[in-house]
User: Fold this.
Amino acid sequence: MLFNSYVFAIFITVVFFLYWALPHKYRWLLLLAASYYFYISWGPKLVIWLIVTTGITYLCARAIEKSNDKTIKKRYMLTAVISCLSILFVFKYFNFFSSSITDLLRLFSLPIGKFTLALMLPIGISFYIFKTLSYVIDVYRGDITAEKHLGIYALYVSFFPQLIAGPIDRAQNVIHQFYEEKQFDYAQVTYGLKLLAWGFFKKLVIADNLAVYVNQVFDNIYEYSGLSLIAAAMFFTIQIYCDFSGYSDMAIGTAKMLGINSMKNFDSPYFSRSMQEFWHRWHISLSTWFRDYVYIPLGGNRVKNSRYYLNLMITFMLCGLWHGANWTFVVWGGLNGLILIIAAMTRKQKQKIYEALNWSEDHFMVYWLNVALTFMLVCFLLAIFRANTIGDVFYFISHMFDGIGAVKAYIKAGSMGLNIGKIRLLSLSLPIFILAAVDFVQLKRDFIDILSKKPLVLRWTIYILFIVYVIVYSYKGVPVDFIYLQF
Assistant:
């Protein structure tokens, strides 16, 4: 049941009216039933792993809280962590590591056949596993108390807006909201609807239209070169942002319509002035998860420099692997780590250059130069992220500047390669410009809040024009899955 489907529109409408019609004491039960129905719609057999993960972490967290023995507490925590990671490993990583080891042994002339498992990856498993892990670890640390109500805890794990692609919200931010008696708040519900609509705009108008050209190039990469490759990389950079932040907007907006506040997952990341800032603005729920449960426990930056750099690299290599069982993701994560290490090593030299030029990081020219450089770096890294194989990565890097010596021919060949005419390019550029303008405003103010305070006539004129625009310019082909559903 995709968010961008008519089935979901009917589903959320029914859930919304039932939720606000029911007495408070029954609402959690409705949301739990709705969440499991939502998940079962993707595949009835896969729900067993959601139930198993929920049960293991619930019981272990309760056992941790009941015990006064630190050794026993740690034993239960490790039981939960190892159990959940084992489930994730078998479904998501076993075939990857098995094939990689087999290929490595064959390099040494050891004729070993590949052994793989024919398993269907449960949708959203990386997201709900990370939610349960953070919960158990927080209980172990004493940051939160274990949830006694199994139904409420099961709802936290399976809450349908967040279930299959996040945000990976923490228990302390969500569980208490299921206990609070919510009153229908017109302003909050309409805010959620507007955020949902903005998510549809990002997904249907921008991401899905760009996906046509991105898939065309990256799935047949050896047929393209030069500007076609660079354009596809830039298109994918915008596509993945609109696809995933669009999903997050829909998830957060849907939850808000039910009176539940979720954590922010994106914060205008393409206006970042460095890769460090980018990771504070991109997929915030995941980056903070790795910060709190991997990077800081390793020692963070409170150790000598060599260990600090190692901590960064380990964290980002694991972040890359979290995204998928493919060496392209590992390389992508490693390069992100390497870039952050280089930035840390050269921070003082960079500051000296600014001082010598009498510039600050907020200087107009410095600000936009850093934004542009960071965006280009993100484009390059995401091209590696999108590549299907390591071979594709090398091809992309070695052929993206083919023919650049003749600039006009380079540009013409690029546009012809993608088969994009001027009118089509304009229709793709306009919504991207709108997106950029809104994101820029969002750096300092809430755009939806600004819009909500405009005069009634102006406000509804914008709403109607927006709806018409989405209907006319949304992608009309086969519905495109959200990118992060595969993770």
In short: The first helix runs from residue 6 to 21. The CA atoms of residues 219 and 388 lie 7 Å apart.
